Amino acid sequence: MSRTHIDLLLIVLLALWVVPVHAEPLDLRQHLLTDPDLIVDGTLDQRYRTASTGRNNQVYTQTLEADVQHSISFHHVRQGTVFLQEMIETPPDQAGSTKTALRAGEAYVSYRLPIMTDTDSVVSVKVGQFPIAAGLTPVYDTHLQIMQTLYDQGLGVRLDPGIGVDGRFYGLLDYKATLTSGTGADRYTPDHRVVAFRLGHLFATDVGAFNVGGSLLSGKLPNTQVNPVTGFSPALPPSGYVTASSGYVTKTRIMGDCQWTYQRYTLRGEVMTGADDANTVYGYFAEGEYRFAQGLTAVVARKFWSYGLQDSTSADTAGGINVDYGNNLSLRTLYEERLDTPLSDGAHFSRIRHLFTVQALVRF
After folding, report:
1. Which of 131, 133, 173 is nearest to 255 (CA)?
2. Residue 6 phi/psi, 5° resolution?
3. What is the greatest pairwise CA distance in the chain?
4. C-alpha dihedral over 70, 242, 357, 65, to 10 degrees?
5. What is the full DSSP assignment across 194-258?
6. Residues 242-300 pLDDT 10s
7. Any idea which fold 3-363 has?
8. Per-residue pLDDT tens digits for 111-140
């Protein structure tokens, strides 16, 4: 990190610290909405970054998001949910999608089935567009985070249209299964099928709470590779929109994931292996958080992915500071060192990038 970046980071943190971190959350809904079953939320994600695809030192609005949620109730008992997430976004890292666009994020209808109601078991069916049931993706929402998990390189999709089943079995095991198109958000191809299943267990101990899971996936998904021209690894915008500029390949995946929370500490990670057609691929993601004080958190992360062709890989090492003011304002900084090695015709090269990102996230 250069001296300029260090000075900028210190100025930002000092400016933030003078504002009380116990800010009261905004509650616009009680003034604007009268339907108790209707919830409307929104987010503005503004960022400054020192480098992006074809640009430098860029300020941009990553996302302006509106979330609308309405419960489905019978006799005053909630049985399901209608959820719609709309985004106006300008993803600077996705080729062919640099212009501002209106896209749907998660959009689905879920309904709880009247099965095993006399036990501590739950079964729900979901239809629409939602996170694929693989690894951390269905249990850790990263769409407004700076650092992403393995899905953009290891899977090629985060959100996918289709049908899903999720629930809890006798309070012991959590399960999620999805049958989707494999084309990504806002797209549908009838001849594509992706099956994914995650089995997890959430439990508490004297040394913290654990959420451990294992996943299997099989189907045709977008081919992910380091861009041979720019040398940059694949990245998806918050909406999960996929260009699939390199076509589709048949993928199989075996995944394990874990999240651990104890007092001031949070650790999460996932490992993934499998094949793209006949080529073996593998990778991992690990992230740790330490809360120094109310609203002040340090973050470190490491991500690696091998594409299974030649020695093409992507690696990302990151560290940063997050400051939260109540529930409505988050200011985050992240420094990353990215190392991407694309396929080559004999001339081996790697692209190293040093990125510094400042994010202002406003929730309303």
Report:
1. 133
2. -65, -45
3. 68
4. -20
5. EEEEEEEEEEEETTEEEEEEEEEEEEEEE-----TTT-PPP---TT-B---TT-EEEEEEEEEEE
6. 887 788 999 999 999 999 999 999 999 999 999 999 999 999 999 999 999 999 999 99
7. Porin (2.40.160)
8. 998 877 677 788 999 999 999 999 999 999
